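Structure ticket #2291
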Amino acid sequence: MNILIFGIGGVGGYFGGKLAKAGYNVSMIARGKHLEAIKKNGLEVTSIHGSFKVKPRLITNNLAEVPTPNLVILGVKSWQIPEVSKQLKPVITAETMILPLQNGANNVEKLLENFPKNNVLGGLCHIVSFVESPGKIKHVSFEPRITFGEIDNSNSKRIQNLKVIFDKAGITNFNPENIQLEIWKKFLFIATISGLGGLTRVSIDKIRESDYLFDLLLKTAQEIKLLANAKGVPLAKEHLEKAFKIIQNQPAGTTASTQRDLMAGRPSELENFNGFIVKEAEKLGIETPVNKMIYECLRPMDRLARTS
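Resolution: structure written out below.
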């Protein structure tokens, strides 16, 4: 199987590295100093579950060099999907599977704007990892897991084959009965902490210490649940309670990647998180005042990052 990892950040670097280590024909798309370092020295992954180093079959910034992929794993940010989709079109065949692992609730819909349903899978991942330096990925938290499935939730032959591939690579994986619900369960958690974290510019423990801020956090999540239910996703009270149990257990100093992007003046996933919540809610006639406040306060900062 030819596997293309598009984007060798914390997510693509870790999971792509594991697949390459297992002997699969892995091509990687990277750029700049990261690309040059991997070309010269291979990809180094430092992990709490054991470190390793691999040399992928191909590391390049030129899609024309890539063998026709059977599977594409997207390791870019959610806001990059529309542009990446256009770049990928020439190498995608009718049999190619595209697996998005980004945060966000509408990555499948973005891909369907450019590809037929047969090409697109639903997916997400759980991992805390990042590029420590060019050519080096650092995994610091969570048992890395890929959750994936057909967008119609059928247990297809190719989904079964994909599970075998992940198993062989030593990647914990899960094919749920309802991939949309799993996507929204993670979205509930990550969107809840990202926006308010970006606005307050403090770690999750500092937000927990404030009754006022913690109440805003809860209201943010309740609005997300309201939107999910209006869209037919069975996000329930128990899922909200579980998300907040995870929030309560986050160690001191924890911040979300979108928050870190906002604080560093980089383009962020704000539009795909609070922006998506606000705009989808408006279409459905739902009030989301807390998410709207967070979004409107952060939007000038995100716009500035995109133009500077």
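Closing remark: The chain has two domains: 2-177, 181-307.
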